[in-house]
Specification:
mainly alpha; 5 helices
């Protein structure tokens, strides 16, 4: 008796998938910002949940159109957004170690995107 191989999901629209995953990163980061703000403004808790929920839906939708091995690591762009939100909205300091960390994250995301693009050119 032979087993049927698992069906392979072929990404149907990688550009849309990347856009949706970046939207997810923005939404979940915004949700976390509102949760932080809710410490002094309790009404922001629900706003945070709304943003976070929208981010989750965007993430799920992105997986329908692209490869999880490319998309999920792109969620690390949320760290860059957190640093920006912290600096501009919460007036948190940006230290050299934070800049180094963000640079490494950005290089990693760019490397993933370029490797994905190159693999598509070869096939």
């Amino acid at each position: 008796m032979t087993e049927n191989p698992r069906p392979v999901h072929k990404p149907s629209n990688p550009g849309l998938a990347i856009g949706l995953i970046l939207l997810s990163a923005l939404a979940t980061t915004s949700g976390q910002l509102f949760w932080k703000l809710s410490a002094s403004h309790p009404g922001f808790v629900l706003v945070g949940f709304a943003f976070y929920g929208f981010g989750a839906v965007s993430m799920i939708a992105s997986f329908r159109f692209g490869e999880v091995s490319i998309l999920h690591p792109m969620l690390s762009t949320s760290y860059v957004l957190c640093l920006a939100f912290g600096y501009f909205i919460l007036k948190e300091p940006i230290t050299p170690s934070k800049i180094a960390g963000i640079a490494l994250i950005s290089l990693g995301v760019a490397s993933l995107a370029m490797s994905h693009h190159r693999s598509k050119i070869r096939t």
